[in-house]
UniProtKB/TrEMBL annotation, chains A, B:
PANTHER family: LACTOYLGLUTATHIONE LYASE, LACTOYLGLUTATHIONE LYASE GLYOXALASE I. Keywords: Lyase, Metal-binding, Zinc. Residues 11-156 form the VOC domain. InterPro entries: Glyas_Bleomycin-R_OHBP_Dase (IPR029068), Glyas_Fos-R_dOase_dom (IPR004360), Glyoxalase_1 (IPR004361), Glyoxalase_1_CS (IPR018146), VOC_core (IPR037523). This is Lactoylglutathione lyase. One of its GO terms (molecular function) is metal ion binding. Its EC number is 4.4.1.5. Signal peptide: none annotated. Transmembrane segments: none annotated. It is an enzyme of class 4 (lyase). Pathway: Secondary metabolite metabolism; methylglyoxal degradation; (R)-lactate from methylglyoxal: step 1/2. Its cofactor is Zn(2+). It comes from Hermanssonia centrifuga. The lineage of its organism: Eukaryota, Fungi, Dikarya, Basidiomycota, Agaricomycotina.
Length: 162, 162
């Protein structure tokens, strides 16, 4: 089926997840996963952080990335409701993968070298829900972000099966 | 901060949401929002549907879209656990926006003409959580998908503020 002409140019711009502590989450998504902060919007009660991978080989400037943030795909929006990071009564957010609260499943990062990516994450102390060697599917893994959201790691090219 | 070199080439490939009835969801994401089905994986208990917008002006073939599905951004994975569509006891999935189950917030589609996009969705009977005219932010809207997940609609270029 051809998409309706009225949807021409539509893009799947971003996915939003709430996070308890932006310092911890920003460190994880930038220093561990390699995203960059392209936009930040602070409101009285909450702050929004928009992150994305650079696909310009470092050629785009910070200003260009900011200007282009709505006209691309692959943006991750992290919402911080102020105060959760210091609230000892805060229960944490639901991963979406257990009842009650099942619905959302995961975000996925595709990598040129899945083995190297998983080894590096493991060496950095990132917890895993499923390692490459666990279970039947040996070409995907699930790591956990600081809030417990599942992050699938997938290869960019599937191995050819005989 | 420059991203770690080990993360070069990483892409935010997809976001996964569980859906109750794939017939209803596929119709919504293709006929209403304009995505295309680029891959489908059927297992004994569940089926995975991978959807994405075409950004090739219709030039890429179905085979090319399938082959490229892991090496791009902006893929939406819908997981159907077989049987939910006919199960009168099935409670539905959590949107992620109410307790218990708060965490995931929404996915967002950016559009060249936000007014036209919202008018069309409204004329097709899509329910809205927030219309363009509701609340303070007049340039974004939130529609609801068939499972009640929030879909933000955003412009691709922000209006210049005086």
């Amino acid at each position: 089926m051809t998409p309706p002409p009225e949807t021409a140019g539509f893009k799947f711009n971003h996915t939003m997840l709430r996070v308890k502590d932006p310092k911890v989450s920003l460190k994880f998504y930038t220093e561990v996963l390699g995203m960059e902060l392209v936009s930040e919007s602070k409101f009285s009660d909450f702050t929004l952080y928009f992150l994305a991978f650079d696909h310009s080989d470092g050629k785009e400037t910070v200003e260009e990335k900011h200007a282009n943030r709505l006209n691309r795909e692959g943006i991750l929006e992290l919402t911080h409701n102020h105060g959760t990071e210091d609230d000892s009564n805060f229960q944490g957010y639901a991963s979406g993968n257990t009842d009650p609260g099942r619905g959302f499943g995961h975000i996925a990062i595709s990598t040129p070298d899945i083995e190297a990516a998983c080894e590096r994450l493991e060496s950095l102390g990132v917890p895993f829900k499923k390692r490459l060697t666990d279970g039947k599917m040996k070409n995907i893994a699930f790591a956990l972000d600081p809030d417990g959201y599942w992050i699938e790691l997938v290869p960019q090219r599937m191995a050819q099966h005989p």
